[in-house]
Amino acid sequence: MGIGVVQVAVTLLIILLLVKPVGKYVVNVFDGQRTGLDRFFGGPERLLYRVMGVRENESMGWKKYLTAVLLSNFVMLVLMFLVLRLQKYLPLNPDGIGNMPSAQAFNTAVSFMTNTNWQSYTGENALSYLSQMLAVTFPMFTSAATGFAVAIAFIRGLAGRRDELGNFYVDLVRSITRIFLPLSFIVALFLVFQGVPQTLAGAVNATTLEGAQQTITRGLVASLESIKHIGTNGGGWFGTNAAHPFENPTALSNLVHIVCMMLLPTALIYAFGLMVNNRKQGWALFAAMSFLFLVMLTTVFVSEYRGVPALDAAGLQGNMEGKEVRFGIPESALFTAVTTAATTGSVNNMHESLTPLGGLVSLAQMMLNNVFGGKG
Question: pTM score, two decimals?
Answer without folding.
Answer: 0.93
